[in-house]
Design brief:
Structural class: alpha+beta
Radius of gyration: 40 Å
Strand content: 25-35%
Largest sheet: 8 strands, mixed
Shape: elongated
Length: 843
């Protein structure tokens, strides 16, 4: 919201400069986003002048040479191109040295050979209006100011003003008007606050609490009181349509509004002042002289003031006359009854609308207006008459209008949304000190609340001194309890005054749950191996599923669709973490960071097949790309990311969680599965469609499939402008649950040395190394501490279709040093087990 400072100071003008006012408002919760200058950067060198004579320019048909009295005793010669300049006029003049809006400085110059000392101004040159058809004639536009030649122009007209751009939070609709901001400034600074601009009676005619007015000029019917708690209307005749006075144009322009004509400008001015939108109808164009407020019919169409025809649904509200809808309630008026140049009678409508309904209508139609932005925040029904009072005065003053007797005021019975006054709230002095950590005198509390328009009186709360506080209507939805009043006291008294204190613990303590500890252990294991955690969007684009080459029947195609997406690219909930990791990888690779080690822990969502529910669970994904380590003099070409680099991380993750994670290849032509042992075993591994054929596997733990691992398919890598990557994704919730369910016993540290023996066994290619290791462990018994494959050989010496696995065996006992007599029998059992597998011992 834009608040011109010169307008704000009319109601509250503390002895502070603009920056100090910005600081006070921001520190009390009314955040000033920025300060901009509207109009001239400085008011200096702008004066009132009187045109003494006008002569044709000797060298230009469209220019005139004017002699202008500037109050200095010596007339100045100014060349002017306006067609309406004439002798005897009082005009606005920029003297040499004046800086115009936009930074252009006025200097003495020669125009077509004639000296010109200054510039006679049009309204648009001071950003008062967009009209450039002629100069401003001040004695015709300003009737109540001293217009002597040489008078500083800023004394009679807005030359320029600072404009505060405020961020108004949804809970503070009272600050959507200039007077509401002035009240905040009054509370924050203690500067006097001018009386409310709507104070006093509307006129001598009381409001008519019904549909028909006393004057018989029309009627109002509200068929949906739940969506329109209050509807007020006044009629005016003898209305003269014309331009608004300069002071009104200047304020509207500074506040971001375009002046149109006096009636429309009045509605915008009153809205900016009070925060309450209003709308003017041409009463002679209201068919049947009656208005009805009702829900729209499905598919009903309305032509709005912006020239668009909009199609409505049954949840929206319209205002109609005898010929049909004339406007979309609370958002925009219609073309058919708008005020025009020949309008003589005006119906001024000020109503209150349901905020959630206005918000929905605005979003569905893609139509936002100054009015809808205010109504959707929840205005108070009482504000309707505030706007009617100010609008009536301005209609009489600026349009010469005659108000017709009576004001229509249709109220919902019973009032929805808590319109009726609520019970006062007790504010206890001891409670204020307890919440804020410091005492605030009860007199100071009352002073702050009264400055914010709360009603305050002394009270007793079970023997404890307190204040009984009545909430003003404009704060009814924001302040509902004692804690809210304490917040008001704290922010106005100064949040910087609050001492830094810790809340009372009262025996409370915090600790991580077992699952949280396991999650942290898993993350630490990845971070400890050089991975960086990424955080991606939970939302994704529909095209992601095609880019990952997912089959039409793949369950991940059942992505939940958002009803209110931020954009088309974020219209689905993600069913895999891979997409967000690939987006991060592409972003980094495009900026020269192709060596990546990333992981993400997040939620994924899959719509249940044939159901409306959504399966949501945590997942863990890893992406490796480029080199695994930076090059050094000893390793100019370090290893690159591949399946086995990702498998090493998987094993580290299993060690951290104390579970065994297996990589298994599944041949789609059979129902069996086998563990993955080395690179050759990958040739039969099943894979996701986005993984490289022969370089992928399924991940199992305790017989349950938890996810997948592999190298990215080249076609998919190309979609993200990557040369390749190794990736994996696991069901993290199930993995943590399996780890938490295991009983982890303590194993004493064995101080006795181990006995290491190596053996090489020749096996058929189709037998995985993991199967051989499994048999060796079973045959070695408890004394076999560990077994590892340290070499693989294929070649002529072992024959075609066979390979040699070199195994390192470590034997260790907890109570003694082993001898050959202990180890030899175990070795023989191991060799026998391998021979039963079809192996042949190499010597």
């Amino acid at each position: 919201m834009k608040v011109p400072l010169m307008w704000l100071r009319e109601y509250c003008s503390p002895d502070l400069d603009t920056d100090a006012i910005e600081e006070r408002l921001t520190m009390t919760g009314t955040k000033v986003e920025t300060i901009v200058r509207h109009g001239a950067p400085s008011t200096e060198s702008f004066v009132v002048g009187r045109v003494l004579s006008v002569e044709p320019h000797p060298n230009a048909d469209r220019l005139s040479v004017c002699s202008v009295d500037l109050g200095t005793g010596e007339p100045a010669g100014i060349v002017c191109g306006a067609p309406n300049v004439a002798a005897g006029q009082t005009v606005a003049v920029a003297l040499p040295g004046a800086v115009m809006p936009g930074g252009v400085e006025i200097n003495d110059a020669k125009l077509r050979g004639v000296a010109s000392s200054g510039m006679i101004l049009a309204a648009d040159e001071l950003q008062i209006d967009s009209d450039h058809s002629g100069i401003m004639v001040l004695d015709e536009l300003i009737l109540d100011a001293e217009l002597a030649a040489g008078t500083p122009l800023a004394d009679v007209l807005s030359v320029g003003t600072d404009v505060l751009e405020l961020e108004i939070t949804p809970n503070r609709p009272d600050c959507l008007g200039v007077y509401g901001v002035a009240r905040e400034l009054h509370a924050a600074t203690g500067a006097p606050l001018a009386p409310e601009p709507w104070c006093g009676d509307l006129d001598s005619h009381p409001a008519v609490a019904g549909e028909l007015t006393a004057g018989g000029w029309g009627s109002i019917a509200v068929e949906c009181p739940d969506l329109c708690p209050r509807f007020t209307a006044r009629a005016f005749e003898n209305v003269t349509i014309g331009p608004s006075p300069l002071w009104l144009k200047a304020r509207l322009s500074a506040a971001g509004q375009r002046p149109i004509n006096n009636v429309v400008d009045i509605t915008n001015y009153v809205m900016l002042l009070t925060g309450q939108p209003l709308h003017a109808f041409d009463l002679d164009r209201v068919a049947g002289a009656q208005l009805t407020v009702r829900r729209a019919r499905e598919g009903e169409r309305v032509a709005t003031l912006d020239g668009q025809v909009r199609t409505l649904d049954s949840e929206m509200v319209v205002i109609e006359d005898a010929d049909g809808p004339t406007s979309i309630a609370g958002i925009m008026g219609g073309e058919r009854s708008e005020v025009q140049a020949d309008t003589k009678r005006v119906l001024m409508e000020v109503a209150n609308w349901s905020g959630p309904n206005i918000h929905r209508t605005s979003w569905v139609l893609g139509l936002r207006s100054e009015a809808s932005g205010r109504f959707e925040k929840g205005l108070a029904p009482e504000q309707c008459m505030h706007a009617q009072v100010v609008a009536t005065r301005l209609m009489v003053e600026l349009c010469g209008a005659t108000p017709l007797p009576g004001t229509i005021d249709v109220r919902a019975e019973p009032a929805p949304g808590g319109w009726e006054p609520k019970s006062p709230i007790l504010l206890r002095e001891r409670r204020v000190a307890s919440i804020l950590g410091m005492p605030v005198a009860r007199a100071r509390q009352a002073e702050i609340l009264q400055a914010l328009d709360f009603g305050v009186s002394e009270a007793d709360a079970a023997g404890e001194p307190a204040l009984e506080v009545t909430v003003p209507p404009v704060r009814r939805e924001d302040v509902t309890r004692e804690a809210d009043l304490i917040e008001e006291v704290a922010r106005i008294n100064g949040l910087g005054e609050l001492p830094p204190t810790l809340p009372a613990r009262r025996g409370a303590y915090g600790a991580l749950s077992p699952v949280q500890r396991l999650r942290r252990r898993a993350v630490d294991a990845l971070v400890g191996r050089g991975l960086y955690e990424a955080v991606g969007w939970t939302f994704t684009a529909p095209g992601l599923l095609d880019r990952l080459r997912l089959h039409p029947d793949d369950p991940r195609r059942r992505a939940p669709v958002l009803e209110n997406p931020l954009s088309e690219d974020q219209s689905l909930l993600r069913t895999t973490l891979l997409g967000s990791l690939l987006d991060v990888a592409r972003h980094n690779a495009a900026r020269g960071m192709a060596d990546l080690r990333l992981f993400e822990v997040g939620r994924i969502f899959v719509r249940a097949d044939g159901e409306t529910g959504v399966d949501e669970h945590g997942a863990l994904a890893v992406l490796l790309a480029g080199r695994l380590a930076p090059p050094t003099w000893g390793a100019v070409e370090p290893g690159h990311a591949d399946f086995f680099a990702a498998k090493g991380l998987l094993e580290a993750l299993g060690q951290a969680l104390r579970v065994e994670l297996e990589c298994r290849s599944t041949d789609r032509r059979s129902k069996g599965s086998s563990p993955i042992g080395d690179r050759r075993d990958l040739q039969s591994a099943s894979q996701q469609p986005f993984l490289h054929p022969g370089r992928a596997a399924a991940v199992f733990c305790d017989g349950q499939e938890l996810g997948w691992i592999g190298e990215l398919h080249p076609l998919v890598a190309r979609e993200w402008d990557l040369e390749g990557a190794a990736v994996m994704e696991l069901d993290f919730d199930r993995l943590l649950a399996l780890s938490a369910a295991r009983e982890h016993g303590y194993r004493d540290v064995i101080s006795y040395p181990s006995v290491r023996q190596d053996l090489a066994v020749v096996l058929a290619d189709e037998i995985p190394a993991a199967r051989a290791i499994e048999l060796v462990r079973a045959a070695g018994g408890d004394l076999l501490d560990s077994v590892e494959v340290f070499d693989v050989y294929s070649g002529e010496q072992v024959g075609e279709g066979r390979r040699s696995l070199a195994l390192s065996l470590d034997f260790r006992a907890p109570d003694r040093t082993l001898t050959d007599a202990d180890v030899v029998p175990l070795r023989e059992r191991i060799v026998q087990a391998l021979e039963e597998l079809g192996g042949e011992l190499r010597v």
